[in-house]
Structures are given as structure tokens and as C-alpha cells.
Write a structure and sequence with these properties.
heterodimer; A: mainly alpha; 65% helix; B: Rossmann fold; 2 domains; seven-stranded mixed β-sheet; 10 helices
């Protein structure tokens, strides 16, 4: 009983901490906009290429549940992740590590906290769906048909998202940007393979269950490849309307959630094994051994600094013997070369050898690959390497509690400018091979568009970091834009101009405008931080 | 003791802190207040500070750190004005920022940087020349006994070593105004004494504001004392005058363990020490002491406790 109480308290503490932040007020607003945009007359869900449903309660529930589950599956990870990392960075982890709570109970508590938050979002989605039905729906109100997809599809998916979030916070290489990148691509790939590429219903979001049920109700065969189409569109063309009364939840539908819940348990299990209990000096082998033989709760007796040699000089000099050299301060309003170098060095600090190898590889490939390949493939890959550098912009001072040291220096905004220029430099250098190839090919307009993109990304990182206090939002925004724009040819989002159509459609103009707005937002935000 | 040699900062002609050579730097706070929601962190604080070490004392939550942040421009006051060398630092914060060294109470470091790299980074964003900064950092690492550890990552530093890095960064620019908030926390006794000597030397020609709970640090270094309680200054005076307030008021009494509680409930008790003949307790009272009490010389801590015990009264010294 005490164990369960401990787990629940860990979960509730996390939920309280989060819900007291005004930043979370944006969630109900986003949900309301989301529900309204899906259920308004301007958007229709078309299944099997030619059918759309009567807008009853079941249809609204199925429609919003599937889209909402997909979005939460991809972006919910970013929303919840961070509690374990926060405890590691604030020192609270040391208190947890020396408390009697086991690693398993602690991590289950964290998972439960994440799940509480995602459940709260799911409840808000249900309420938004009810409101949307009241505004736009027809027929009798069937709450079970409306809400059951959220209960049986969204919540199991959220359990998995929460478990993976905990897992990535306990496996050291996944704790930062690498975890966000891998999760984003894994989530999109899993969704695409299990939900869009198959009519089998075991996918984590359960989209196939809803789609199969709708297709069957429309009188089509859900196992036929062409009938797997499931599209939200503003221009449905000629469609046949049918009535769908919701999912008939039987054993096959409920059991299809089994793999998702099993994956949740597996994720938590791996997290418990990998968890270092906030004591990074223990190797993964020691942790696994400790977990298996039941000694994982004890803190290693060696403090991370205890095995270091004595640090004070053996013979400290009398202060009277020390003459401090005089110094000349030359603070100017603009960042100088020395400051810019310092910021770039700071941004690159901690990168692994393979990161530099990757950047060098991208520069070389950009120069020697065919220009279209360089532009369409090498440049996006090069800037994916830059993500881990940009993710630190705007949040470093808060994360490492150096604000009071940095913001009380003369003209502190020039440090912001230097950090921004450092971020731009990383984009330019990593894309320099591609830029060279474009210049040699005489595509100077495209060069300009790429440079605009290079200015845009660090501006986005700085603004979101400063205003939101976390790098996770920038990471997911960058990855979403990267995936939709350059990779899937949504030209209006192609901020790095990887497609010729992007330039002809004038996207760089909008990117430049957004860059200016974001830089202004970053300056305003930092000015607020500098003098509260 | 031979004073630590600290040449004055050379300023470029276009940036002119208005310090005059004859008078030294001067900091004036006029009715300064800072409000957080409905709560005032500090209110109606007026201080006139000249070169020397000002010890800032006060209980937890008295507003010491808020006052430090206001002085260093990290926070903007809700009301009142702050002048440094006759320049309003609220409207022109960079005038002060060019001349301030600040050691916050709770600060972080970049754990992947070495001590030398961290100081180099801060020197760069403060506009120090590369060569001068290198030499200065070298001296500061020696001064703070971190020379041997200069190339180790800060993530592996102990709390005391990290604190010494904080002290070093506060002295990077040879500031006219040095603001240190709980600087000796985490330092071992030898380092604490060493840093107190540094502070004393620095206070000869600049303003040093030392906020601490450790009254003996103030006693050893300060030329002036300000006591904050409930966000307001209840004393700004010299240590001598603060001590004079409790002259003939401090007594030592030897009591049994059983009688100690009774003594504590009747008198302001500053210290108790167990000895073979009983507990030796030092009490502060303006009234009649117990019969067998013997008068002793007061300490600054006793003067401070006495002041807080009756903090309705405001003590003002010549400098207040």
C-alpha cells in the first residue's frame, strides 16, 4: 500500500508542477481550435476514397479520436517528457536517489504522471468533441459511441507514449535531442506502417479499427488496399454519404490493444534496468547487475568527485604574493569576433566525434553530389545534424542557472546576438557544400533562399527557447517542418528551399518575414529576462 | 598584512564610469522596493554606500538576495531609484554592469567546460581583451587555489570548488562594485579565511557588498553593517557602533542542563557550550542578569541577535 502511495505521490507532484505553469493553458485553446477545424463544414473525412459519414456523435468521436490520437502519439512525447531530466538538473534527483523509493516505483510514478497529463488532454478532447457535436452535429447524442474510441484507442496509445518518454529519459544517449529525433521518426514510421500500410488492427493508434469499421459500414471491403484511404480534405469532390454508428467493441478490437500495452510494459521494464538513479558514474553493466541482484536502490558510495585527487594546490600561495593583472574592458553594443567565437565554442561543446564527421561528410557530399541531390537530400541531412546545437539556444542560461552571471554583463543583448549568429554559422557551415554547389551552378536565388533558411532556424530556436524555457518545442517544430516541407514537398513549409517550387511559390519571403518576427520575439523575451 | 594588489580597471575613453579619482565609487539607493505579486521582497530601502566592505545581515527571507539582484540590475525595482556614481542605473543599467562583479547565491556553471574555459567565456562576453583575460584568469585561478584544477570539467567540481570559480568570475573585470551573496558557503575553513582576507583587501578602494548569514565573516571584514528584516533596513551603521549598543548587556552564566531551558525562555541566549561544570551560556539582556552571571565582551553576532530581537528600533550610524 505504501508503495502505491509513493507511486501516486510521484505522479501527482509532477502533475501539480506542470499544471501550475501558465504555459499549459495553451492546451485547451489548441484542442478547441483543433476540434472546431475538424468538424466545421470546410473539412470532411473521406474513407475508402469516396465515402463520408453523417455528422452524428459517433462520426465526430471517431474522426477526432483518430486524428487526435495520431497527433498525441507524435507530439505528446514532447509535451510530457522532462520530469526526470528536470530532477537530474535541479538536484532533486539526489534527494530521490537517497530516499527509500525503488527505481521501479519512482519510474512508474513518473510514467503515471505523464499518463495523467495525457489523460487530461484526452478528456479535454472528448469535451471538445461533445461541444463540436452540439454546434455542428446531427442525430441523437450517443455518448458511448463518441467517447469509446478515446477510451480504447487514445488512452492505450498514451500509455505507450508515456512509457517511451520515461525510457528516453533514463537511457543516457537519448536524454536530449537524439531522443526527440529518434522518437519523432520512429512514431511517424510506426504509424505509417501499422495504420496506413495495413488493415491489421494492432497498430498503437488503432486507426485501422476505426477505419475498418467505417469502411464496412459504407459497404466496402476494408482489406482491399485502395479502401485503406483515410483522408481529411477540404475538397472531397463527389462522395457518398453513409451512417456510421460507432465501433462495436468486441474481443478482437479490445485484444488488438494488447501489443501496445505490452510494449508499454516492456518500455518501463527497460527504463528501470537502464535507470542510473541519478548517479551517472555507474556503468550500464553495473546497473543491470544491480537491478538483477536487487541492489539497485543503493547509491554508489563513491561520489562522482570523491575519487578525484585532492584539488586544492598543495601549497596555496599567500594572497599578498599575488598580483592581479590589470584588464581593459571594451564592451560594445555589438558582438565582436571574440564573443562570437566563444558562443560557437560553447554551442559545439559536448558534440561527439561522429557529429563532426557527419558535418564534414555533408560538406563533402554537398560539393560533389549532383546539385539536385545535394539540395534535396544532403542539405536536410546536414541541418538535421545542426538540430542538437540549435536546441541549446535560448535555454542554456536557464538550464544551467547561469542567468545571473550572463545577464548582469554589459550589453547582455549582444550575447543573444552572438548566440544567434553562432547558430546561423552552424547552418551555413554545415550547408556550405550545398551552397558552393548551388553557386557553381549559378542558382543564386536558391542560395539566397537557403541563407534565409539558415537565419530562420536559429531564430525559431532562440524565440521558442526563451519564451517557453524548453528546447523540446523547438525540436518538435523543427522536425515537423523538416518532415513536411523538405521531405514531403509541402512547399509552403519548405524553409530550406530544397524544392525548386518552393522558390517559385515565394516561400522564402514568408520564411524571411517569420525570421524577423522570431528575432524580435527573442529580443523582447530576453529583455524581459534581463531585467525582471 | 600586505594588501592584495589590484590595479584599477582601465576603461576605454568612450565608456566613462563617472567615478572620480578623489572620491571613489558611490552607490545610493533611495526608497527602493521590489514587489512580487502581492508580496514586497524589499521596501523603502535607502542606503548610501561608499568604498569599503558593507556586511549585509538579515534572517532568511529578509530580502538580502533581492536587494543584491536589484543592485546588480538583474532585477528592476518596482519603486525607488538606484544611483551609481550619480548615474541612474535603472535607466542606464550598462553603466553599472561595466563596473560590477557579482557572485549570486545560487548560480550554475556549464558542466562540460573546464574552469579556465568557463572564465574565458565570461571574460569574452564582458568584453575583456584576449591576452589580458588570459593573464587575469591565470592570476584568479591562483588566487582561488584552482590552478591545478584549471583543466578539469566543472561537472566534476565539488561545491566548494564551484564556489571558488564563482568568486573568480566575480573578480574578472576588477570591478568598482563587488557584490557577493553568501560567498563562503561550501568553503572549507582555510579557504573561508583566505577569501575574507581577499575581501578586506578589495574594500580599500571599491565598494564590496557582502551578504551572509555568517556574522563572523562580517565581523572580520566589514567596515559597515546593514541589517535587513522583513524587507526593510533596520540598521545601517558601523560594527563598532552596533557592538556599542550591547556593551554591558552580554553575560556568561553557568547552569545545569536542567536549568538551561528555563534560562533560554527568560533570556536571549546566543551560545551554549558544554563543560564539565555545566553549560556555559552567553545571554544578552538589558535588564538584570541572573545572580551568578559574569560580564563578557559582546560579539557582533550578539549585537545582531539583540537588534533582531527588538527590531522595532532602527539603528543609524554616522554613515546611515
Amino acid at each position: 500500500m505504501t508503495g502505491i502511495r509513493g507511486v501516486v505521490h510521484v505522479a501527482i507532484a509532477d502533475l501539480r508542477q506542470r499544471l501550475r505553469s501558465p504555459k499549459y493553458l495553451v492546451i485547451p485553446v489548441l484542442i478547441a481550435v483543433f476540434a472546431q477545424s475538424l468538424t466545421a463544414d470546410t473539412t470532411q473525412l473521406v474513407v475508402a476514397g469516396e465515402y463520408t459519414g453523417v455528422q452524428n456523435a459517433a462520426w465526430f468521436g471517431g474522426m477526432i479520436a483518430t486524428m487526435g490520437t495520431f497527433l498525441l502519439f507524435v507530439f505528446g512525447f514532447t509535451l510530457v517528457r522532462g520530469a526526470v531530466t528536470r530532477e537530474r538538473e535541479t538536484g532533486v534527483g539526489e534527494l530521490v536517489a537517497t530516499s527509500p523509493i525503488s527505481a521501479g516505483r519512482y519510474l512508474v510514478g513518473r510514467w503515471l504522471g505523464y499518463l495523467f497529463l495525457l489523460t487530461l488532454v484526452t478528456v479535454l478532447l472528448i469535451l471538445a468533441t461533445v461541444a463540436a457535436y452540439a454546434l455542428h452535429g446531427t442525430g441523437s447524442f450517443d455518448f458511448w459511441a463518441l467517447a469509446s474510441p478515446f477510451m480504447f484507442l487514445t488512452l492505450p496509445a498514451m500509455a505507450l507514449v508515456a512509457a517511451v518518454a520515461v525510457l528516453t529519459e533514463t537511457v543516457q544517449p537519448l536524454q536530449r535531442t537524439a531522443g526527440s529525433v529518434i522518437y519523432f521518426f520512429a512514431a511517424v514510421a510506426i504509424f505509417t506502417i501499422t495504420s496506413l500500410g495495413s488493415s491489421v488492427t494492432y497498430g498503437p493508434t488503432g486507426l485501422a479499427i476505426v477505419r475498418n469499421s467505417m469502411v464496412e459500414a459504407a459497404g466496402a471491403d476494408p482489406s482491399v488496399f485502395e479502401n485503406r484511404s483515410f483522408a481529411f480534405t477540404g475538397d472531397p469532390g463527389s462522395v457518398t454519404t453513409f451512417t456510421w454508428n460507432g465501433i462495436d467493441w468486441g474481443a478482437p478490437e479490445l485484444l488488438s490493444r494488447g501489443p501496445t500495452l505490452a510494449a508499454t510494459c516492456l518500455g518501463l521494464l527497460v527504463a528501470v534496468v537502464a535507470f542510473d538513479r541519478f548517479e551517472p558514474s555507474r556503468s550500464i553493466i553495473q546497473r543491470i547487475t544491480g537491478t538483477l541482484i536487487g541492489s539497485g536502490e543503493s547509491q554508489s558510495e563513491k561520489d562522482s568527485t570523491a575519487d578525484q585527487p585532492a584539488l586544492a594546490d598543495a601549497e596555496s600561495r599567500d594572497i599578498a604574493e599575488i598580483t592581479l593583472q590589470s584588464v581593459t574592458q571594451r564592451p560594445s553594443r555589438l558582438p565582436d569576433r571574440r564573443m562570437l567565437t566563444a558562443e560557437i565554442r560553447m554551442a559545439l561543446r559536448g558534440q561527439q566525434w561522429w557529429w563532426y564527421l557527419g558535418i564534414v561528410g555533408c560538406i563533402g557530399a554537398g560539393q560533389f553530389a549532383p546539385v539536385d541531390t545535394a539540395r534535396g537530400i544532403v542539405l536536410p541531412v546536414a541541418w538535421l545534424f545542426g538540430l542538437s546545437v540549435w536546441a541549446g539556444l535560448g535555454v542554456r542560461e536557464q538550464r544551467f542557472r547561469t542567468s545571473e552571471l550572463v545577464f548582469t554583463t554589459p550589453y547582455p543583448l549582444r550575447q543573444l546576438a552572438a548566440a544567434y549568429l553562432g547558430g546561423v554559422s552552424v547552418a551555413i557551415v554545415s550547408g556550405s557544400g550545398v551552397l558552393t554547389a548551388l553557386m557553381l551552378a549559378g542558382k543564386f536565388t536558391t542560395v539566397g533562399a537557403v541563407v534565409i533558411g539558415a537565419c530562420f532556424v536559429p531564430a525559431l530556436a532562440l524565440a521558442s527557447g526563451i519564451w517557453l524555457g524548453t528546447s523540446r518545442v523547438f525540436e518538435v517544430l523543427f522536425l515537423s517542418l523538416w518532415y513536411l516541407g523538405p521531405m514531403n514537398a509541402v512547399y509552403s513549409l519548405d524553409f530550406m528551399a530544397t524544392h525548386p517550387e518552393t522558390v517559385t511559390q515565394g516561400t522564402p519571403v514568408w520564411v524571411a518575414t517569420a525570421t524577423v518576427v522570431l528575432v524580435i520575439a527573442a529580443v523582447v523575451g530576453r529583455s524581459r529576462e534581463i531585467q525582471h | 598584512m600586505v594588501p592584495l594588489e589590484l590595479p584599477s580597471t582601465t576603461e576605454t575613453p568612450d565608456e566613462s564610469p563617472s567615478e572620480t579619482e578623489n572620491n571613489g565609487p558611490r552607490l545610493r539607493l533611495n526608497a527602493v522596493g521590489k514587489q512580487y505579486g502581492d508580496f514586497w521582497g524589499v521596501r523603502d530601502v535607502s542606503l548610501d554606500i561608499e568604498p569599503g566592505v558593507l556586511g549585509l545581515l538579515g534572517p532568511n527571507g529578509a530580502g538580502k538576495s533581492t536587494l543584491m539582484r536589484l543592485i546588480t540590475t538583474y532585477l528592476a525595482p518596482t519603486e525607488g531609484t538606484i544611483f551609481f556614481n550619480e548615474t541612474d542605473v535603472v535607466s542606464s543599467p550598462n553603466t553599472l554592469r561595466k563596473n560590477v562583479g557579482y557572485l549570486p547565491q545560487d548560480f550554475g556553471v556549464y558542466p562540460d567546460l573546464t574552469a579556465e574555459e568557463f572564465l574565458s567565456y565570461l571574460a569574452a562576453i564582458r568584453g575583456l581583451k584576449r591576452g589580458e583575460a588570459h593573464e587575469r584568469i591565470d592570476d584568479l585561478l591562483t588566487l582561488t587555489n584552482l590552478h591545478e584544477a584549471r583543466n578539469r570539467r566543472l561537472g566534476s567540481f565539488s561545491g566548494g570548488m564551484r564556489q571558488r570559480v564563482g568568486i573568480a568570475q566575480a573578480l574578472l573585470t576588477d570591478p568598482d562594485l563587488l557584490v557577493v551573496d553568501e560567498p563562503t558557503v561550501g568553503l572549507d575553513p582555510a579557504e573561508r579565511v583566505r577569501f575574507r582576507n581577499v575581501l578586506s583587501s578589495l574594500g580599500d578602494d571599491r565598494i564590496v557588498i557582502l551578504s551572509t548569514h555568517i556574522v563572523s565573516d562580517v565581523e572580520a571584514t566589514a567596515t559597515d553593517v546593514a541589517v535587513l528584516a522583513d524587507g526593510q533596513v533596520c540598521a545601517h551603521t558601523t560594527p563598532e557602533q552596533l557592538l556599542a549598543e550591547v556593551t554591558d548587556c552580554v553575560w556568561e552564566v553557568v547552569v545545569s542542563q536542567d536549568d538551561l531551558q528555563s534560562l533560554k525562555s527568560n533570556y536571549l541566549t546566543s551560545t551554549t557550550t558544554r563543560r564539565s561544570n555545566g553549560v556555559h551560556a552567553r545571554i544578552v539582556t538589558e535588564g538584570d542578569p541572573p545572580e551568578d552571571a559574569t560580564p563578557v565582551s559582546p560579539t557582533l553576532e550578539e549585537a545582531y541577535l539583540d537588534l533582531l530581537d527588538g527590531s522595532d528600533t532602527t539603528v543609524s550610524g554616522e554613515n546611515a
